[in-house]
Amino acid sequence: VLILSLLMFPVLRSLALQLHAAVTGSYVSGTHSIAFINCLNEQIAKDIARAIMDKKLAAYVNILPKSLALYFWKGELEESTEILLLVKTRTSKIGELSNYVRSIHPFEIPEIISLPIDQGNPLYLKWIEESVPRD
């Protein structure tokens, strides 16, 4: 019973936080995330952003203008320009988002990283939740 209780603690804690948030109207930190995805050019960025939105994997995608990127690739220092996508979604969708983007992205290893949203405008966070279906 003790081992089962320890194994179930994260699930029970998450459910308790969600219940508390529903009752009090407060935000549970980390419920939503921002994913960063790099793209070679604006057309690829638009195509990936539209595909993400069509699959309802995000509520909102910003396409940021060109930035200079320096990185090591196959032992060599590389320099290029890239377009960055900022994807606002549910944290629970990050795995699905990552898998989908990897399946359509032209890069061998695309940058797909995410950060949880700690706090924000409650109405905006609620809108993200309403815009992205649950699992």
UniProtKB/TrEMBL annotation:
The keyword Signal applies. The keyword Signal applies. Residues 1-16 form the signal peptide. Gene3D superfamilies: 3.30.70.120. InterPro entries: Ion_tolerance_CutA, N-reg_PII-like_a/b, N-reg_PII/ATP_PRibTrfase_C. GO terms for biological process: response to metal ion. GO terms for molecular function: copper ion binding. It comes from the Eukaryota. SUPFAM superfamilies: GlnB-like. Keywords: Signal. Homotrimer. Belongs to the CutA family. PANTHER family: CUTA DIVALENT CATION TOLERANCE HOMOLOG-LIKE, DIVALENT CATION TOLERANCE CUTA-RELATED. This is CUTA protein. The gene is Cuta.
